[in-house]
Amino acid sequence: MYDSSELPMDVSRQTLLTAASLAEQADFRIGSVTVYPSIRIVAAGDRREKVEPRVMQVLIALAQAANEVLTRDELFERCWGGVFVGDDSLNRAVAGVRRIASHLADDSFTIETIPRTGYRLVSEHGPQMLEDDAVAVDDPIPLAGSGGISRRWLVAGGAAVGLGAALVFWTRGGPVDPAQELIDEARIVMRAGSPDAMSRAIGLLRQAVAKYPESGPAWGLLSLALARVDEHALDTATISVEEVERSANRALQLESGNADAMAALAISIPYYGDWLATEQRFDQILAKHPDHIFTQDSRLFFLGAVGRMKESAEDRFDLVKRAPFDAAVGYKEVYAHWFMGDIAKADRAAMRGLDMWPRDPGFWFARLWVLANTGRIDRALAHVSDQATRPAFPPPMFDTMRLALEAAQSRQAAAIAAATQRVMMSVGQNVSAVINAMMLLNIMGAIDDAFALADAYYLERGPIIAAMQWRPGQPVVPDQRRRKTNMLFVPSMRAMQQDPRFMPLMEDIGLAAYWDKRGIAPDFLAGPSG
Question: In the prediction, which pLDDT does 136 show?
Fold first, then answer.
């Protein structure tokens, strides 16, 4: 362990940490991790992460506590100035520090929860303040999307801001976009993947393009954020395809080949029934920008939509390693492990995600469906009933889930019939209810009703009216505004897949033609070796 003499003691444990005061904090190291408070960078080897101000404040406070416990009240006092902000704010900040420890710190430190008290940072290599010559003043500290910003130029650039917004900052690697700070902030916010987070990111980027209208990267990321908001079920009256296109085209005028803008244009087009053209759009972008995470994420999700679940899963694992702080990318890892038959890893990925992003809908639903479809309905029921950890959706949604899971567990015909009626009553209310219903009907073995719902949802056939659009006030989960086919190919849909009605359904929605044109077979037709 370590003693307090190793800590950066330039700021006492009682000093208030503010976003402005981070510039005054000394750089320090914890094992293999170097922390640069003034620019909010955490580095390990050739990896760099920019963190939110509050996360950096909590990390510094815990490091300066010298392996001692900081109570929740002390953390509120140190990092929020004693202003009451609610436990969720502290929980999110601590979760952010844990993400650093888990994905970047290589076990250099952990954050221990002291029940009913607070937290402490535990490390075998106590935090040590860097010596003056430990990092040369000109050593570049790379940021996402730039060639590297030297600490000397950061100081000079800060002074230059006062000379006019049109100035371009320079590093040893070339010019730095003056909107970079807002762009970096927006990228961090977007990682949560929720509609609220995407809206906040859009606000930052609109501010960026208003202040720096010649910033191609800002326009490009704005177009991508607008497109992903639409994908994540926000009201189409608020975010239009025209607005996505205008922002993307402006980015491409300023910066030919802007990857974010190209991705925005590709994902803003719904791909239901347009399978082959969608795959070609994604592949064209990745041919020019093979490391563009958002395009990779969208393409892998698309592969699941066309029944290529295992192929999607194999590449998903690598993508999650490259984007460990992105909840919208990370929750799909749970499904990937499930598709590959590794339930233990799926469980660990779900629990890790919920620890990092408490109540995140993506991780919450992923854990629910893995539990419910792997013979653990009792645990799935406990998961649904735990009000403290579930997303903030209306209680009737959870009541419907609970009723269906209890019916599936009982295997009694009367209970299944009653639960099926309740599930089918919900599908006209919102799109997320359709996806939930398809999963629940299969869990209960109500296959006839599942096919009736599929006819309504995909083909507008039959007496059932299934919702196609999201409306304000309805519960939403990621990736569920447009017609989705992914749930048809999860392992628990085997009964539907083996039914003689399934292939005609695939023909009617155009997937059979896609498989024929591509010369491939989906996983459920390829067999165990496929």
Answer: 37
Rounded CA separation 455/466 (Å): 9
Residue 84, pLDDT score: 58
* Burial class, 201, CB count within 10 angstroms (exposed 0-12 / middle 13-18 / buried 19+): buried
For tokens 């304000």, what's the residue?
472
Contacts 24+ apart (CB under 8 A), 245-254: 247/209, 247/219, 247/220, 247/222, 247/223, 248/219, 248/220, 248/223, 250/219, 251/216, 251/217, 251/219, 251/220, 251/222, 251/223, 252/216, 252/220, 253/216, 254/214, 254/215, 254/216, 254/219
Q: Locate tokens 């003034």: which residue?
A: 38
- Output the pLDDT for position 405: 97
Query: Mapping DSSP to helix (H, G, I), strand (E, B) and coil, where does residue 461 land?
Result: coil
Of 98-102, 264-268, 301-305, the poorest mean pLDDT is in 98-102
The pLDDT tens digits of the residues spanning 375-399 come to 999 999 999 999 989 988 888 899 9
Burial of 374 (0-12, 13-18, 19+ CB in 10 A): middle
Determine contact, residues 322/296, Cβ cutoff 8 Å.
Answer: no
Q: Strand 70-71: give its sheet, edge to edge.
A: 70-71, 118-122, 110-114
